[in-house]
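Notebook entry, structure prediction.
Reason for the run: the old model in the group folder had no record of what sequence produced it. Starting over properly, with the input documented here first.
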Amino acid sequence: MNQGLVGMGRLSATLKDFMGTSLGSFSGMAIDPTTWRKAGNGYAATLYSLPDRGYNTGDLYSDYQGRLVRFDLSFTPYTGAGLPAATTSQSQITLTPTGDGIKLTDFNGTATTGLDPAAGTTAQNGYTLPSPTGTGTRRVALDAEAVAFLPDGSFYVGDEYTAGIYLFDKSGKMIGYIAPPAALQPMTGGQLNYNSIAAPNTGRRNNQGMEAVALSPDGTRLIAILQSATIQDGAGNAGNRGNTRVLIYDVSASRLPTTPVEHYILQLPLLDDTGKGGAVNKTAAQSEVVAINNHQFLVLSRDSAGYGVDGTLPEMYKSILLVDTKGATNLAGTAYETTTKPVSTGKTLDPSITPVQQGELVNMLNTTQLARFGMNINTATPAGGTNLTLSEKWEAMALMPALDEAKPQDFFLFVANDNDFQTTDGVMPGYTYDAGRNNDTMLMAFRLTLPTAVDPLFEAAMLRNGAAVSALAGETVTGAADQGIGQVTTHLGVLRTEALSGAGRGKAATDGEARVWLSGLYGFGDLEGDTVQNDTTNYAGAVGVDLLIDGGFTFGLAFGLQGGSNEPDGGFKVDHDGYAISAYGQYVVGGFSVAGAYSYMPMNLDDIRRPSAYGLSGVGSTDAAAHVFAGEAAYHLDLGGVKAGPLVNLGHVRGRIDGYTERGAAGGNVTYAGRSFRHSTAGVGAEAILPLTGVSLTGRAVYTSTFDTEGNDAGLRLSSVAGGATTAVAVPTGETDTVTLGLRAQGAVGAVGWYAGYDLDIGLDGGLGNTLTTGVSLGF
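New structure, fully documented this time:
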């Protein structure tokens, strides 16, 4: 849904860029998504404009180096009443030159040029590329028309001369080239001829090359669209150029694939450029593409009328199309691609080919919307229009999320023009000029609702941080389970020391004696595993009842409460609280002891916080539960007052985390599928008991290792994307081996037993964990 035009902006045609030449406006543009942020009532970001080949008049071409020009973008949407018919009314978008940019060079590091190459070529890096003759150092002729950035700062540029796609590194040096398939290569007399004046025999038309490139949101596909039909696909007048090519390359394994994996026909709108309803004589050629998912694209289709063109032809068609490749015939690898076999005769498409689906989403010539910002489409009075008449060439687009929690699938589509370097104060390398008019650079912003659009940064953050926060939630459940049952196992250790040393009770145990006990625990640590670094705080308390049976047996039940927080660096967080119901038993005879415990622990996970994109955080809550088993066996030898010996233990956690959906990250909110997991550990070590007068000291050292995990994946999807598929991602287990050093003192005051202990967990992957415990017991 088109919510309407919500802003415009302009830059003076007399502006010079960071290289001192006239600003060439926008044949392509890109907004750096990592800089896009809300700023007060508006938005701010860094924007790059891509000019084409420099000023030309059909017989005059410029030795113009390709470049990207950097701007600071500020945008405040406007939905109020109509504004006056004045240039000051187009002020919702402001661009401030930063004074720098990126200069484009060829494979040899030599500046590219905008000069028409005629039949000249140069061989670089194994490719035959256009290069003008008689200009000294041979270099690549570039007519840049579209740009698409990769996450590492490198970028693709669609080229008019070759109908191919160049890859540049982040410094602007050419590092790769994707040659067009045979059907698109401009061939004259059986030879490549990249000139822009004389039409080739087959392949791309003059000045109708690779006008549009874009990356899919997941970064696996490169979409490229020829501006209009090839020579062989539409001979005759300009009304026969509607069947153009859409090429889709798989760039997931290689950034420089040699052939497309998908190849479709897009049927562009046809029109009578006089506006009188006569015979079709023009094609509304396409000028830019933005991918909203892997099969749906926004395509800018336009006529060639408007301010900047001599004459009074009316503005008939400037629209944003929604294009869908589903159900279309894939021509990849067929003779339509590998040879010059035509897909159409005149306007008539080969009946064996099903074109992509398309529909108009935005009519840029909506006079009511334009008038609100003081603009018009009147090219008749005065002839050719004024600087308030919508200009001819709109060629650049960028799509950014509105970051609106209430409308998570709303986006701003920025559209910019190419002013053809038209200024009365022109500067090109080696000369100055007067183009006879000042055709300002202009931008428009439309607010769109796109239910199926996937924002690339939101998706990337989901895949990167969704797995991490899922791991953190699992570790929180496991950690809470260990702390909860840890109070029971610590109590069993107190009973063992008591039985072996006699310290810790006010009177000797009798058969059938019952005893109530209370314990408390506080832990904190930063143990590191194979996921985000943990920074935990835990607290727990428990109350239990023991039944002591003659012969060394103890059985009991306990109820506990626990809570805490896991808040590592990087904006992650999980809080938890819950309770535990436990049953346990122990047998001590001579120096041998064996103990086991089971706990069931339902818990709430609150404030589950994950860094999303654009400075936002996804926050959610859910329920979880764990079944926990723990067992330990030990043998203590009497070593002359000290009782010491080996011990082994086993632990097992079987957990479940219910599914939930985040809030707070607008279009980046993630829905997490429920997941179950398990986590098993084994430990081996030694324990020593030193009885003193009225007190026993128990020290232990235990090495613990994880030996079994399961459920190490999670299902994620962007919650607001209509029809969005769930993606399974690998969840790090968070496992880390530890060495635990513990010391506990215990004794009795009258009938009340007491203990206090400290455990230090040393992570073999780094970090420390600390646990303080204390408890009392009373027999009756």
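Summary: The first strand starts at residue 2 and ends at 11.
The old model has been moved to the deprecated folder.
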